[in-house]
């Protein structure tokens, strides 16, 4: 049976080793002569999502009296198992037709239960085949929350681009898709670079014009600054708190002077904070040769919009 314990989506979770009892048990390093036991003596199987065997020879020796645990190897085994069984949760989203696609829970190894299973087997002579314990990871945004924060439009901005430039248009499309359906909770910061990630060929980004030191050049991901700039103006229109923004070293054609937000990986970023008491939803899409970004929240939100200029 899966234990549906609500935990944060944090891949660095190491809860099993944090409990004092488990830590003490794992610290039993005896001085008796170590004897390896047969690899097929003990295995654990799991029913979700695929089969996985745990071989005790990876981390355990037997002394004449008690098992000896190599805590470092045992931790490595749990890390490997966690990587094998891990399924990331998926937030609820609003699709292109305006319908809500429900969330999906994720799974990870329940380390504390796994440790208890190990010791139950050795000290209580339990069955050698057991279900690998999984811990449910709940998504950050569920359907109920999403439905409540798409009610009221609080910010909007639209820019145009040359759709005949296929490479640049592709980069704009990828970055737009990356920020679409982002939900920013109260007091939470949104980083454009963090959400969009590194712009690489493997992700589909193409060579397109960029501005470097005031001069036009070509680079992977050229054009995504139009997405960050459009987002900046929509965020400013909603009255949200701007944390970090930089302008290009020369004027650009899609927003008024000094109304842009240049970004680059390991360089300038666009960051804002949700300084309101309700979560904010970003909806971003391309309409022909236009890029539209809108911000939504709950009907009950109290906000202070700002006027933003257009070309």
Structural summary, described in words:
The chain is α+β, with helices and mostly antiparallel strands. The protein folds into 2 domains: 128 residues, Ubiquitin-like (UB roll), CATH 3.10.20; 149 residues, no CATH class. It contains 7 helices and 15 strands. Strands 7-15-14-8 form a 4-stranded antiparallel β-sheet. The protein has a 3-stranded antiparallel β-sheet with strand order 9-13-12. A two-stranded antiparallel ribbon has the order 1-2. It is globular.
Gist?
The protein has helices at residues 20-26, 71-85, 111-124, 143-148, 166-179, 192-196, 224-237; strands at residues 60-62, 67-69, 93-94, 100-101, 106-109, 134-137, 152-160, 183-184, 189-191, 207-212, 215-220, 241-244, 271-273, 280-287, 290-297.
SSE layout:
Layout: H1 20-26, E1 60-62, E2 67-69, H2 71-85, E3 93-94, E4 100-101, E5 106-109, H3 111-124, E6 134-137, H4 143-148, E7 152-160, H5 166-179, E8 183-184, E9 189-191, H6 192-196, E10 207-212, E11 215-220, H7 224-237, E12 241-244, E13 271-273, E14 280-287, E15 290-297
Give structural attributes:
three-stranded antiparallel β-sheet; disordered N terminus; 311 residues; Ubiquitin-like (UB roll); 2 domains; single chain; alpha+beta
């Amino acid at each position: 049976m899966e234990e549906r314990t609500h935990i944060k989506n944090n891949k660095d979770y190491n809860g099993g080793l944090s409990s004092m009892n488990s830590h003490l048990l794992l610290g039993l390093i005896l001085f008796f002569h170590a004897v390896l036991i047969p690899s097929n003596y003990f295995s654990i199987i799991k029913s979700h999502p695929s089969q996985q065997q745990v071989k005790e020879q990876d981390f355990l020796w037997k002394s004449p009296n008690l098992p000896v645990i190599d805590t470092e190897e045992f931790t490595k085994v749990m890390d490997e198992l966690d990587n094998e069984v891990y399924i990331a949760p998926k937030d609820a989203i609003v699709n292109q037709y305006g319908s809500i696609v429900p969330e999906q829970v994720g799974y990870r190894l329940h380390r504390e239960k796994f440790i208890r299973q190990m010791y139950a087997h050795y000290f209580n002579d339990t069955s050698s085949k057991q279900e690998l314990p999984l811990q449910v990871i709940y998504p950050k945004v569920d359907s109920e929350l999403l439905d409540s924060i798409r009610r009221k439009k609080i910010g909007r901005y639209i820019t145009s681009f040359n759709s005949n430039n296929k490479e640049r248009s592709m980069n704009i499309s990828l970055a737009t898709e990356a920020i679409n359906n982002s939900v920013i909770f109260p007091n939470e910061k949104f980083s454009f670079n963090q959400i969009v990630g590194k712009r690489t060929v493997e992700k589909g980004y193409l060579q397109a014009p960029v501005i470097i030191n005031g001069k036009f050049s070509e680079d992977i991901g050229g054009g995504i600054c139009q997405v960050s700039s459009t987002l900046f103006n929509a965020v400013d229109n909603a009255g949200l708190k701007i944390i970090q923004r930089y302008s290009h070293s020369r004027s650009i054609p899609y927003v008024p002077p000094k109304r842009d937000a240049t970004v680059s990986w390991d360089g300038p970023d666009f960051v804002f904070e949700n300084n309101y008491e309700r979560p904010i939803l970003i909806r971003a899409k391309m309409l022909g040769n236009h890029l539209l970004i809108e911000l939504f929240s709950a009907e009950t939100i109290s906000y202070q919009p700002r006027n933003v200029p257009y070309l």
